[in-house]
Description:
By secondary structure, this protein is α+β, with helices and mostly antiparallel strands. The protein is 49% helix and 7% strand.
Amino acid sequence: MTVTYTHKTHTAGCIGGLTRLLFIWKGSLFKQIFAEVVLYFGLYFALSLVYRYVLFYNPESKLVWELFCMYCEKFSKVIPISFLLGFYVTQVVSRWWAQFMSLPWPDTLARYLAVYLPGTDNKSRDVRRTVCRWVNLGNVLALRLVSYKVMLRFPSYEHLVESGLATNKEILQLKQLDEIVHRRHQISWYPFMWAQNLLRTTRKEGLISNDWFTHVLIKEIDSMANMNGMLICYGWISIPLVYTQVVTLAVYSYFIACIFGRQYLLPDQYKVEGDRFVVVGDFPKLSNWTGTLVAGSTNIVGYDIHIADFIIPCFTILEYLFYIGWLKVAETLLNPFGEDDDDFDTYYLIDRNVQVAFLMADEAGRQIEMEPDPFNNEFPIELKHTVVSAQYKDDIRPHMPTDDVVLAHEQVQISDSVANSKMNLNLGSKLNLAGSILSTPITIAKYHNVTVNHVGEKKNELRIPSRQLRTNSTTLTASVPESIQEESMEELRSRKNGDTTELIKMKTDRKPRRIQVIVKEPSEEREQDKDKKDKKGEERKKSLDENKQGFEAGGGAAMGGEFDGDMFDGDW
């Protein structure tokens, strides 16, 4: 029963585009809240008549009524109706669309059956039709649990037999399964298992050509069963009741307060004389506003004296339409499987799925002959238009953001110079480009363990982390001039073995830099460490050999396994 109106909004060019939708009655706002509007404003005007023709002539009752109305008007504004209602409706609409996307459709499965299980013989055709019937039966069993309308159409298993979706033998199995679970769990998945088992048997008989086709068909059936399960979960788990109650209570309590707070009041005009208020006139009349309004007067109830008595609360009516209509949207979409105008067309959905699935299953064996190419092997530039459609032609091609970019001839020339680069090469900047250059080492000789690395940003010192020492290699940074490198190496060669620190003053065209050079030769300690590592390696190899022998003796051969030791030879 979904109300479709997009055919009336195909263009926004006419005046008052969407206002045409206000005259649709089915599923409209006015149809949803017409009775409530009549009841609400009937009560509003009844109270207004009591005030004007009964309480107005009793000053004390009139004053109490006016004070109460102002009290309701003031404190009704503390109800966060917009926030509560807006967030609630957002959640309901998201849930509504998710439920529609959870509806299973047998179209894909039927197409797969037509391709993967072809054949015009009775056996192939019966298998295709039976699979389609069983998946539709599972869909109906799931919809019976969430849709009041579907339950009315199929109130018992026997009605499924009458409709042709099931046989008496199949219904007997469903009833037996219901008794096994004591009717505590839904069994809409049972027909899907029948279909999967039938496909497995069909594969064994050779009607399906390979296992992959069988796998695709079984997965598609499984997907439909999962969608049914999701649909049942939506019917089982609702939006928390407390939230629905809070929103409903907030909206209706707000408008109950508005029945009193939005009344047009007629308070007397007062002036202060000494220590008391004195009545100086009735409320100003709309027909003679300036003549009946007393200058300097006020009213003691706090009513805005600048609001004239228009009798009909136009903006209160609009506010009621908006907020109550908003709440009605949530009420309608909260359960889309009911009888509202905008609920899902479950009857059509069931009939359509059965008919389309069987049609695809029957048409699977019919082949269509290939016709000659209508375009005569030419590239189709554009399909032909009718006289009417030619008026609405699209652009030749989509307009992209860079289509309007136009460059002069000088701007598109290839530049071969970087002299105009605006890169900031300030050595004191946070980018520390100089430090990045100095941290790149180069190898200049293979005599000593010398490594120079950049440390410190302000002093530009070069220091050697211990983890960067390498045996029989000397490295210096790329920024050190060759002359200084040669002098440093000569000086290092003349020194004795051991740890030595040499500070080299670099005099180049830039500011002097400090370089710290650490010279280390392989010591006895390192040789001892090497011997220890070799010894550990031998012990580990010996242990692996023992494990191998134990594995082979203990039954590894019986299990078909063969132990080859560490495949990585101790490496990472």
